[in-house]
Amino acid sequence: MTIRPVELSKAYRLLQLGATTMLSAKHQDDADVMAAAWVGLGGPNKVIAYLGTQSYTRKLVEKSGYFVVHIPTVQQMETVLYVGGHSKFTSPKKLENMPLFYQDGCDIPLVTGSAGYLLCKVVHNAQQEQQFDSFMGEIVSAWADSRIFDGRHWLFDEAPEELRTVHYVAGGQFYAMGRGTKFNHGPGQD
Amino acid sequence: MTIRPVELSKAYRLLQLGATTMLSAKHQDDADVMAAAWVGLGGPNKVIAYLGTQSYTRKLVEKSGYFVVHIPTVQQMETVLYVGGHSKFTSPKKLENMPLFYQDGCDIPLVTGSAGYLLCKVVHNAQQEQQFDSFMGEIVSAWADSRIFDGRHWLFDEAPEELRTVHYVAGGQFYAMGRGTKFNHGPGQD
Predict the structure, then answer these.
(1) Which domains are present in chain B?
(2) With contact defined as beta carbons under 8 Å apart, do B145 and B2 qualify?
(3) What is the pTM of this model?
(4) What would you measure as the largest C-alpha separation in chain A, in angstroms?
(5) Cβ of B171 under 8 Å from any chain A Cβ?
(6) Which residues from chain A sit within 8 angstroms of residue B128, using beta carbons?
(7) Which of A12, A54, A166, A174 to mutate to test the interface with B (most CBs of B within 10 A)?
(8) A residues 93-112 closer than 8 Å to B (CB)
């Protein structure tokens, strides 16, 4: 198994590349997974996710107070389109053929094959949620595929192409993350 | 000149790839540019930007109510590190050697060489700003380099490598955006 825990102090790096995400949530026995292009960092250890009112997953987030942000990979592009194109309101068996797994301490299902996973606890702000469909979450646990994230840095240039993150444009068009460059005089901690 | 206006209904696509950004702002004659990795879409035509209290640019945003999100390119990686590593509080001549230009209807300077620019008007929410350093902006104008964004889609695969967007990790490490893929059965309008 290549999925390993990531220290909370480095978990933001999983989201900072700005990949298109999938979001999973669960309330009692009801789980769902959605595609979410508008999910980003909202501060140290904070995620901000746009969850439209038509989203089934949003109802589960509202009831449970938790969600998991997935960082999908090239091998999951069709999965991202599938979950984005089907609502559990009209396709109740949406997750039936999806490869899911669980991590210790997280009862929300994770979709197999993503680069990373961020378990977030909702920090409620009624105005932002109701007026702007904007949900803030605090990252409480994180995991990543150790073949492409060593706990501190991404390793795309040493890994298979199908493990790169994906960045959605529109109309079925994606870009994959490309080549890395390292400057020695960069600010910040390594 | 390859910088052309982008329709507001498509402007979100400039930010949706999740690139690291630069942010410029101006109050009276005082302008600044900062690097901002935590800037993303917060809804239709909405941007959410994390602006730490130590940021000089934040003061200008607070006073003027406007900011410009830049989508930098590979040719600007050193510029992103420079503006991120120098504060106007301690380097008052920070912008002196920076190539800047202006667009009609926007008196905030833009840094030459970015893929796109989004002029945003702050939608104030005192709690989000003070408690979380999180600022929401409504996109009111947008421009892009027509060599890489045709008004609807990115054209990276047909353009020089140095015009790809950049995605910052930490410690001077960046990734450039990579290759595109198109699925015909994607949801959403083209």
Answers:
(1) 3-176 (2.30.110.10)
(2) yes
(3) 0.96
(4) 53
(5) yes
(6) 125, 128
(7) A174
(8) none
Q: What's B115's DSSP letter?
A: S
Minimal CA–CA distance to A119: which of A190, A49, A19?
A49
Q: From the list B127, B184, B188, which residue is nearest A125 (CB)?
A: B127
For chain B, the average pLDDT equals 95
- Contact (Cβ atoms closer than 8 angstroms) between residue B56 and residue B88: yes
CB-based contact A180:A157 (threshold 8 Å): yes
Contact (CB, 8 A) for B57 and B32: yes
Task: Indicate which of B183, B184, B189 best probes the interface with A, i.e. most A CBs within 10 Å of its own CB.
Answer: B183
Q: What is the mean pLDDT, run by run of 10 residues, along chain A of 190 residues?
A: 94 97 98 97 97 97 98 97 96 97 97 98 95 97 98 96 96 96 66
Task: Output the 3-class SS for A78-143.
Answer: HHHHHHHHCCCCCCCCCCCCCCEEEECCEEEEEECCCCEEEEEEEECCHHHHHHHCEEEEEEEEEE
Torsion angle defined by CA atoms of residues A74, A76, A79 and A85, in that order, rounded to the nearest 10 degrees: -30
> Please, are residues A136 and A127 in contact by the beta-carbon 8 Å criterion?
no
| Rounded Cα gap, residues A114 and A100, in angstroms | 11
Nearest chain B Cα to A132, which residue?
A: B43
- Main-chain phi, psi angles of A155, to 5 degrees: -125, 30
* Residues A18 and B19 sit within 8 Å (Cβ to Cβ): yes
ipTM: 0.94
pLDDT at B175 over 50: yes
Residue A97 dihedral angles phi and psi, to the nearest 5°: -105, 20
Give the dihedral of Cα atoms B175, A42, B137, B47; nearest 10 deg: 40
Q: What are phi and psi of B185, to 5 degrees?
A: -100, 20
